[in-house]
Write a structure and sequence with these properties.
Structural class: alpha+beta
Largest sheet: 4 strands, antiparallel
Helix content: 10-25%
Number of strands: 9
Radius of gyration: 15 Å
Amino acid sequence: MADAYRFVVGGAQVGLEDAGWAFEQVGWLAPEASSTPVYRLYNPWSHDHYYTADREEADGLVSEHGWEWDFDGEPAFYSAETSDHPVYQLFNPHETVGTHHWTTDHADEYLPLIGIGWQGEDAKFYAAALPEA
């Protein structure tokens, strides 16, 4: 079974299929710019990526926990200025790879995942829009 991805950052979709990834769907649309950058980090041990709008959190993961900056520490994308479309973060304490998940679907994805053992970490940033169904 291929790994799956739901959003593309900075043209990262190129080559993912060749590496065994399968595209699921667009998870959300981000604005071209805003006052709230979202950073992407990479864990070289677990091969996980992590997204955060909290620069202090990102700096700590890099300096204290061995994570590496993607995009040389520049924003991967931006959070919307309004909270109309929250992007919720979840953590799976039972896994060592793929431990975080982001979704805009509170009722049908966020809450059910909490119900099977994921830890809800609330909204971490905001989408500009959701893709058309």
